Amino acid sequence: MKILACFLILCGCVQAQLLSNQSLGRERGVEIRQWTYRSHGMAVKGLLFIPPVAVGSKKPVVIFSHDGISGISKEHRLSSLRLANAGFVVFAPSYRGEDGSDGMVEVAKGEVDDVLQAIKLMDQVPQADSSRIALAGASHGALISFLAAARNRDIKAVVAAYGVMDIYRWWEYLNRAGKVGGDEVTRRTYGDGPESRPQSFAIRNAVAVAPQVHCPVLILQGKKDDIVPWEQASYMQTALQKAGKSCQVELYPDCLHGFLVYAPYLHDVTSAERAQTEKSWRTMLDFLHRNL
Fold first, then answer.
1. Tally of CA atoms within 13 A in the half-sphere of 2 that contains its CB
2. What DSSP designation does 14 have?
3. pLDDT tens, 204-213?
4. Across the strands, what pairs with 59?
5. In the beta sheet, which residues pair with residue 107?
6. H-only helix segments in 61-127
7. Deepest of 53, 59, 174, 234, by most Cβ within 10 A of its Cβ?
């Protein structure tokens, strides 16, 4: 029996399991619940945001994956509330190694499995239409979302905000700019680069799986981003177009890295970046409503 269980975990056949479903009350009219669920043998957490839903009706779902590797930020929580108030059931996963979840941070590896397992649980939410699910993500979450969409043909739309799409060119950029981090997670994940960690780079290269994405893609990118340069959006657009896929790219000339989630709530944002961020939100919501 143990051998069979291990095999099922390795092949991804384990049924999704919700371990706990705790109410955190209501905020801005939205019901918030904290989930703990099983993802490949680990207990991982996330926040579920349920907007008001008329009796007998259901709302489409957005799995909204956060940036960074430090869990769900205050700003991501506020952005999730905003998405919910726009008419979506929203689930924001706290990937493995974050916010009390089991495991350790893997950077767009096991985190992809955490998102895929969360998708399987959406049919347990009475207010959610599990036949209409989109993936949206910012930075790290954008890469996770794209990789997850390539492994699930039922996803209806993907929104990728300032995510690394061609990891090899991004690594070259970091080296040229002297921005390669020396922290433990970076060293563990990327080592000295593609030659020393070929598999680590290959499994995180989003442009390589563009042909496996079967839904429309929206890419939001700031041109003043010095962490993920705007050319990353162009690399993915080219890859998707070559594969005959639908891709919309929106570039914002005055936006820095993180604008979608953080600019609405920070005080040191320029008026131009704030206005362009609001435009990006309108674009994203229109895209989601159109495709869900």
1. 0
2. P
3. 999 999 999 9
4. 128
5. none
6. 74-85, 110-120
7. 59
